[in-house]
Amino acid sequence: MALAAQTRGASIWATPWTPPAADKSNDNTIMGTLTNGQDFAQKLAAYVTTMKTAGINLIAVSAQNEPDANVTYESCSYTGATLASFIGTYMGPALANSGVKIMAPETQNWCDFPNYAPAIFSNTAAAGYTSIIATHEYGCTPPTVNPAVQQVLSSDKEFWETEIYDQTTPADAGMGSALRVAKLITDALTIVNMNAWHYWWVYTTGTDNGALWDTASGQASKRLWVMGNFSRFVRPGYFRVDVSGATVSGVTVLGFTNPADNTTVIVAVNNNTATTSVPLFVSGTEWPASVSSYVTSSAGNLVPGSATPLTTGHFTASLSGQSVTTFVGKP
Q1: Could you tell me if residue 148 is inside a domain?
Q2: Residue 119, Cβ neighbours under 10 Å: how many?
Q3: CATH code at 77?
Q4: Tens of pLDDT along 256-290?
């Protein structure tokens, strides 16, 4: 599966849910603490080698999935200090020459994140080895002001959201869930300036909103297509730019640019049930002559529209009710 994804352009990273039982305090793959960091670090290094031999170029390996979770499945418990110690003393040296980045702490939610991320920065060795600071979002909301987040943003680390799904019930493969996912993406990118955003599963045998594929209908959910409104057009190397001016009720607008060629990408989310007009202006002097649009709504998935001309950087977008529209233009 990893090879198939990589062949289609995906980047592959991995996260361990538990060290081997023999390396833990309770001799069990469920919960317990790590007691043999040297052995586990060597096993992670061997895993990277195995994947490379299979043709999979891992870009990152996490130190632990949800080190703060109290669960009944494969897991391992760390404090912020013990996780940082494992990275700085064992995992970092073991992976130092592998070309693979280390990710941490992958906490379960925003509530626990401040108990873990600062501990990594406080450990000089761990901070030096860790390239990606990451968290899941199962609980609490992205903090607007948080010393732990500010510490990450002022550092040279990447900041990733690595697991979340629409937890609202009942199961919904349509635009209701898709718009909630669009908000999750928007909040992660705009409130805490994250560099990457991941959905939990592509496919699951369950019937909730945990996957991008809907097993009940045997079709891709609208969640997948709305994620595509971002990921298909906002590519690695692009930057998010500020959006200012009067807001339109029920509409969220995000802007992005590619500094390599000044491509402009605008993602507009219309939560209103009715079609809504939004005036947009691309600042600067290198305006696109026109923008192409791609609309995901109950009527279609990333449906391309006709080009809309710009007048000195201005155009008016007509957004379908309960839709996500991406506009793309290049000078």
Answers
A1: yes
A2: 23
A3: 3.20.20.80
A4: 999 999 999 999 999 999 999 999 999 888 899 99
- Rounded to an integer, the average pLDDT of 178-190 is 97
Count of CB atoms situated within 10 Å of the CB of 78: 21
pTM of this structure: 0.96
Nearest in space to 101 (alpha carbons), one of 48, 174, 26, 35: 48
Matching residue, tokens 């939004």: 278
Q: Which of 209, 237, 265 is the last residue of a domain?
A: 237
- CA–CA distance from 106 to each of 14, 146, 148, 227, 325 (Å)? 12, 17, 14, 21, 31
**CA distances to 8, 24, 116, 122, 316 from 34, in Å:** 36, 5, 16, 20, 57
* pLDDT given at position 251: 98
Q: Which residues contact 220 (CB under 8 A, 6 or more apart)?
A: 212, 213, 214, 301
- 3-class state of residue 253 by DSSP: strand
Classify residue 25: in a domain, yes or no.
yes
Do 185 and 302 fall into the same domain? no
Q: Which of these three, 204, 237, 270, is where a domain ends?
A: 237
Q: Does residue 244 fall inside a structural domain?
A: no
pLDDT in tens, 233-262: 999 999 999 999 988 999 999 999 999 999
